[in-house]
Amino acid sequence: MEAAEHAGERNGKAERAYGLQAEPAIEAEGSHGGTGGAEGNGATEDRAPTIAYPRTRLQIELSVRRLISFHYFEFAPDFKFEGEKHDFWEFVYVDKGELEVFADTEGYLLRQGDVIFHKPGEFHGVWANGVRSPNVIIVSFECPSPAIAHFNNRILSLNDRQKELLAQLIRSGFAAFLPPYDDPLDHTLLRKPDAPFGAEQSIKLYLELLLIDLYQAGCEPAREQRLSSAVTIRSEADLASRMAAYLEAHVEGQVRLELICRHFHMSKTHALALFKKCMGLSIMRYYRQLKIERAKAIIREQMHTFTEIAAMLHYPTVHNFSRHFRHETGMSPSEYARTVQARR
């Protein structure tokens, strides 16, 4: 009883402090000879005052909308990824060792703790340097926030706090999605049926926290100070070599310059300049030479007419084929065929 009385006293004080009163009991009709209870007595109820709580919409500076890929690689010393181009953001972080990276026309050398950001539309690829086997984290994502432009052309070195945020991101990814995490051609994220509560949301939050922390840390030097002329030369030579191999594989087809640029995610100006620099010829001149060399090989087999050869190599007419053949070799197809017979 005493505890109840104290509780009653405390409740009464609280009600008075907030301007509240206990709601009076409504007597049964006719009690004490009355005729109408509270309404009949003309009494009014005291109600709690309505408090208007202001609601603040929080500013979202960097928001990750979707996750595209989540990879952890342990590359062999001779690993090479030819390159790609896409419409979303990607970062590449070197967890161990060293990694050579190219982005559009430039090459860079990344060391342990470095991260490079690739903006949408940037052609990029990676190589192991042939000496140390690197461990690499690659995460790609959609971020529509204007502030993400801060990471254009950036190579950054993570501090301990940022490394811990990245580690938490990776742990959450391992908890949320099924392996494999090391297939460079498979970006499908398969959910674990027994994933912990909030695992995917944790990925988003840790990624956003990492981006915010990097942004708040200030602007480090842009990529220009990490340029590697050796990597640039290697990337250009490798790309030109792959373009030449593509032309050779389609020598009996009909390849246009626009098709080559689209296949290698390059602008026309970039493709022409890079190929001429590395190969000494324009792309289409090189392709014509490949066709003529293929034509000479077919002529030596003596199994097809010149009209058939022209059709095999996708020349519009045999006359067009003959004109190109003479331009490249200094003789007509029939003159070349006679020299082949004379040597036998």
**Backbone shape:** elongated
Query: What are the segments in which pLDDT stays under 50 over at least 5 consecutive residues?
Result: 1-40
CATH superfamily of the largest domain: Regulatory protein AraC
Quantity of strands, as a count: 9
Helical proportion?
40-55%
Radius of gyration: 37 Å
Give the percentage of residues in beta strands.
15-25%
SSE order in H/E notation? Answer: HHEEEEEEEEEHHHHHHHHH
Question: What is the gist of this entry?
Answer:
This is AraC family transcriptional regulator. The chain has 344 residues and is α+β, with helices and mostly antiparallel strands.
Give structural attributes.
344 residues, alpha+beta, Jelly Rolls, Arc Repressor Mutant, subunit A, 2 domains, five-stranded antiparallel beta sheet, four-stranded antiparallel beta sheet, 9 strands, disordered N terminus, RmlC-like_jellyroll, HTH-like, transcription, HTH_AraC
Descriptive report:
By secondary structure, the protein is α+β, with helices and mostly antiparallel strands. The chain has 2 domains: 66-227, Regulatory protein AraC (Jelly Rolls), CATH 2.60.120; 230-342, Homeodomain-like (Arc Repressor Mutant, subunit A), CATH 1.10.10. The protein has 11 helices and 9 strands. A hairpin with a 2-residue loop joins strand 4 (98-103) and strand 5. Helix 3 (160-176) packs antiparallel against helix 4 and helix 9 (306-312) packs across helix 10 (318-329). 23% of the residues are buried. The model is unreliable at 1-40 (pLDDT under 50).
